[in-house]
């Protein structure tokens, strides 16, 4: 890997998988960004066949033909063995994450693995232990954590105290999926592949709740969740919808509560979350919970019927290059960490991944949802 002294960090990626998430991640890294703090090269791609892999490259590289094309392999091992690969991006179905990570780590590669990191905490611990023994960088790709949204929210909530003490948080991720039209072996339907709304999209709602209600503290520093209440709507062995309520102790006494819901049955509203404090509220909006566009700050209480609205409102909008979604922010963070010989990221450390997997394990257990991997 290049990247020392005054030069920009430069990492060479090996991408596993050719689905939507790998497509968007790769597209973001190829997009021109004149002010980018790091350089990214896609050096290799692992697919189930050369035909599928080459078709992926033809499609993704169409808009940036000047970018060097990767070496395409008809398996994942070729990516692990490629000496031109510094870090492996795991964009495969959930059930493959553990083995993909272990194989990449065994080959001495750094790893950025899509969420959910694994199916359960036990699998996650196995990967974390292997990474720490090998001394390589590993991070769960919870890309939304790296959006400038959360720095701006921290400024409003903690530095400016714009809405007073946070008391309640509501968030909903509705991502309509045509489950009736999908084959039984689809990653969105097959329990053996870790299908279900909680692991696929509910992890985002729990992430927001953890950041905001947990005062931006991660891993072992995260405050204790006083109570977790949940309801899973299980159909054909997967949760098509869920609601999770998290109770935290409030600094002012009593408790503060986060209500998190996610579903495959409906598309959610553009305004997907609301943070309520003692002196105002913040409304979050965007394409979806995973791709936030910004937020509105409303200082003061909501007026009673008939009262004049004297509240102060301002808007924060996220800016990013045209044609990108925002995956590059996490990739830049990975590049900086690797160039500085760090094996974990401060925003998304491995202990935070383990904490989140344990939380989702408990929610599934309480709701009666288990996967084959839970029995191994």
From TrEMBL:
Enzyme class, first EC level, given as a word: oxidoreductase
Name listed for the protein in its UniProt record: D-xylose 1-dehydrogenase (NADP(+), D-xylono-1,5-lactone-forming)
Keywords of this entry: Oxidoreductase
Domain GFO/IDH/MocA-like oxidoreductase: 156-283
Enzyme Commission number: 1.1.1.179
Organism, scientific name: Bionectria ochroleuca
Pfam family, one: GFO_IDH_MocA_C3
Catalytic activity: D-xylose + NADP(+) = D-xylono-1,5-lactone + NADPH + H(+)
Record-annotated Gfo/Idh/MocA-like oxidoreductase N-terminal domain positions: 11-140
UniProt family annotation: Belongs to the Gfo/Idh/MocA family.
């Amino acid at each position: 890997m290049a990247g020392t002294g005054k030069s920009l960090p430069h990492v060479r990626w090996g991408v596993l998988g050719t689905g939507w998430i790998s497509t968007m991640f790769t597209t973001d890294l190829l997009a021109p960004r004149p002010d980018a703090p790091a350089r990214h090269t896609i050096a290799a791609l692992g697919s189930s066949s050369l035909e599928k892999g080459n078709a992926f490259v033809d499609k993704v590289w169409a808009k940036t033909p000047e970018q060097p094309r990767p070496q395409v392999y008809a398996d994942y091992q070729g990516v692990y063995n490629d000496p031109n690969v510094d870090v492996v991006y795991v964009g495969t179905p959930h059930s493959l994450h553990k083995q993909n990570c272990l194989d990449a780590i065994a080959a001495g590669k750094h790893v950025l693995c899509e969420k959910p990191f694994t199916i359960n905490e036990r699998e996650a611990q196995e990967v974390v232990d292997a990474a720490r023994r090998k001394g390589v960088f590993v991070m769960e790709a919870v890309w939304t954590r790296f959006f400038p949204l959360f720095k701006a929210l921290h400024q409003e909530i903690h530095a400016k105290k714009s809405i007073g003490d946070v008391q309640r948080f509501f968030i909903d991720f509705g991502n309509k999926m045509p489950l009736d039209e999908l084959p039984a072996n689809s990653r969105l339907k097959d329990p053996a592949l870790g299908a279900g709304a909680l692991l696929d999209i509910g992890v985002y709602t729990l992430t927001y709740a953890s950041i905001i209600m947990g005062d931006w503290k991660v891993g072992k520093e995260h405050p204790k969740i006083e109570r977790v209440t949940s309801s899973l709507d299980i159909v054909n062995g997967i949760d098509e919808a869920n609601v999770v309520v998290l109770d935290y102790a409030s600094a002012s006494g009593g408790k503060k509560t986060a209500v998190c819901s996610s579903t495959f049955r409906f598309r959610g509203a553009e305004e997907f979350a609301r943070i309520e404090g003692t002196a105002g509220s913040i409304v979050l909006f965007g394409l979806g919970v995973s791709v936030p566009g910004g937020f509105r700050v409303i200082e003061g209480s909501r007026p009673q019927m008939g009262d004049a609205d004297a509240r102060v409102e301002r808007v924060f909008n996220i800016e990013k290059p045209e044609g990108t979604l925002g995956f590059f922010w996490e990739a830049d963070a990975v590049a900086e960490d690797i160039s500085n010989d760090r094996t974990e990221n401060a925003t998304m450390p491995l202990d935070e991944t383990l904490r989140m997997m344990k939380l989702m394990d408990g929610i599934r257990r309480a709701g009666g949802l288990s996967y084959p991997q839970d029995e191994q």
